[in-house]
Design a protein that fits this description.
Helix content is 32%, strand content 24%. By secondary structure, it is of the alpha+beta class. A 5-stranded mixed barrel has the order 1-3-4-5-6. This is Lon N-terminal domain-containing protein.
Length: 214
C-alpha cells in the first residue's frame, strides 16, 4: 500500500492518447520506443516503480505543454521482456495527480512537477456506488454490446464489484480521448458511472449521426 508520503513531487510521464488509468485498476502497456524503454528502466531502479499516465492535449494557443492537467500514476506490478527487447508491462493505478509544470532535463522522456492535492481518496479502499442501479445498467450495457457486435463474459461482469465494473468499462470501452479524460476527472465513482451511462446512451443514439437504436 502506497501512502501519501511516498508520492514524489516529480514524475516521469507517459503521454498516450486514449489510454485511461484509474486508481486500483490495471492497465497493460506495450513499451517499445527507446525513450519509454529508458523511462521503464529508470522506474524499475527507483523505489516506487511509478509512471504517470497523462493524455496529450494538443490545442493550438493553449499553454499547457501539450498535456492534460490531470493524470493518474501507476506502479509497475508486472512485466515481461520479449526476445527483441520490448516490454509488456502492467501498471496498477495508485492516485490521480495534477500537472504543475514540465521539468527540463536530460532524460529522453518527459518529467513533470505534480501535486496530489484533492486526490487523497484515491489512496483509500475501493469505492462503492450507493445509487447504482445495476440491473438497469447491465440492460443498457447489453444493448450497447449487441449494437456494436461486441462480446464479453457477462457472468464476470455480473459478479464484479461496483468499482471494478465501472472503472474497467471506463478504461476499456472505445470512447474519444476527451471522453476518457472526463471519466478520469470524475470526482467520485457515482459521478464516473453517470458519465459512463451518458456516453453509452450517446453512442446508442449514434452520437451526432443517425440513430443506432433499432
Amino acid at each position: 500500500m502506497i501512502k501519501a508520503a511516498d508520492l514524489p513531487d516529480t514524475l516521469a510521464v507517459f503521454p498516450l492518447p486514449g489510454a485511461l488509468l484509474l486508481p486500483r485498476a490495471r492497465l497493460p502497456l506495450h513499451i517499445f520506443e527507446p525513450r519509454y524503454l529508458a523511462m521503464f528502466d529508470d522506474a524499475l531502479k527507483s523505489g516506487g516503480r511509478l509512471i504517470g499516465m497523462v493524455q496529450p492535449n494538443e490545442v493550438p494557443g493553449r499553454e499547457d505543454n501539450g498535456l492534460h492537467r490531470i493524470g493518474c500514476v501507476g506502479r509497475i506490478t508486472q512485466f515481461s521482456e520479449t526476445e527483441d527487447h520490448r516490454y509488456l508491462i502492467t501498471l496498477t493505478g495508485v492516485s490521480r495527480f495534477r500537472v504543475l509544470s514540465e521539468v527540463e532535463g536530460f532524460t529522453p522522456y518527459r518529467r513533470c512537477e505534480v501535486s496530489w492535492d484533492g486526490f487523497a481518496r484515491d489512496l483509500g479502499p475501493a469505492e462503492r456506488d450507493a445509487g447504482f442501479d445495476r440491473t438497469g445498467f447491465m440492460a443498457l450495457l447489453r444493448r450497447y454490446f449487441e449494437t456494436l457486435e461486441l462480446s464479453t463474459d457477462w457472468e464476470t461482469l455480473k459478479d464484479a464489484s461496483d468499482e471494478l465494473l465501472i472503472n474497467s468499462l471506463s478504461m476499456l470501452l472505445d470512447f474519444e480521448a476527451e471522453d476518457k479524460q472526463a471519466l478520469l476527472e470524475a470526482p467520485s465513482l457515482s459521478t464516473r458511472r453517470e458519465t459512463l451511462v451518458t456516453l453509452i446512451e450517446f453512442a446508442l443514439r449514434g452520437g451526432a449521426g443517425e440513430d443506432l437504436m433499432q
